[in-house]
Each structure stands twice: as structure tokens, then as C-alpha cells.
Amino acid sequence: MRLLKPAQRVEAVHELNVSELTARGIQGIIIDLDNTLTEWNEYHLCPKVHQWLSDLEVQGIKVCILSNNKEKRVQPFAAGCRIPYYISGARKPRRKGFIRAMQIMGTTPENTIVIGDQIFTDVLGGNRSGIHTVLVNPISRREFFGTRMVRRIERIVLREKKPRSERKKFFVFKRREGQP
Ligand SMILES: [Mg+2]
Q1: Which of 42, 68, 117, 164 allows an S-S link to 138, with CB 3.0 to 4.6 Å?
Q2: Ligand 1 centroid distance, CA of 12 (Å)
Q3: 49 is in which domain, residue-wise?
């Protein structure tokens, strides 16, 4: 369960103050695409996110998109918003993509952060890689069918102080899922 807890939670990416990141010594950001930077399968960036990305560039903080989505989705998006580094088909929460992203940016787990909207991919993968994880609220409710199912479990995991009765419910739910 510890690996499913984000180190930090913010409403949206642009709430992460760029000067504060610099002050903390952050040099690289591994960032999810769908519902973190923009809506699922959308290409439009909201002006605030656009500004935030420019501020990062000015401060010299590198950004690498790490997405489980396909190359044909990720590549045009990265090109469109001039993000030089991206990895598609990342298979998060596998560590491989996170490690590769840090290699590309020339950063380490100590001076990198992971930002994403899902705990079973972004947060779990980031925590497993020893990187500071930031969970954002998904931009839109519209998403991949499988993701909508996962959200229901996420809501249970994210409930900070779980009453005993709810905790029990969660485990019953898990056991049921494992049954044929
Ligand atoms: Mg996402």
C-alpha cells in the first residue's frame, strides 16, 4: 500500500511552482500525457499548462513525457508542444521507462519528479523507482474504458483515513476479483 501513496497531490500540473522546483534542486520531470497534460486523446494544451511548460524551459528543467499510449498518439503531441523527450508504450508501472527517462534527461531519482493522474501506473512506477511522485486530478472524466474501472479502486486507496468497515470492504472486493 505504501507504494501506492503519492508523495504530493496537486489539482493540476501548473500548480507546481517552477521557482520552487528549482529551489528544491529539481532538474527533470517525468510526466504522463493523457489527463495530466491534456485530455485523453486531445492535442490542445490549456494556456496555463502551456505557460508552465515555457517557464520550465526557461528555468532549464527538462521534461520527458512517459506514456503507456501508442507512438502515433505521443509523438505528434510531443512535437506539437515542443517537448523534446518522450517515451511511448512505456508499460508503467514498470521501472524500465522511468529509468530510461532519467537517462535521456541526465537526471537521478534525487533531482527528478514524476507527475501523473493514476496511482497504479504513474505513482506506483515512480515510487518503485525511488522518485518523488506527484498526483494530479485527471483533467477530464472522459477516458479509456479500462481506466474508468481502475478509478473506482483508486478512490478507495486514496481515502486517507479509512474507517475499519470500509477497509474490510476493500479486501473483500479484492478477494472477489481474484476468484474465477
Ligand atoms: Mg494519465
Answers
A1: 117
A2: 12
A3: 2-140
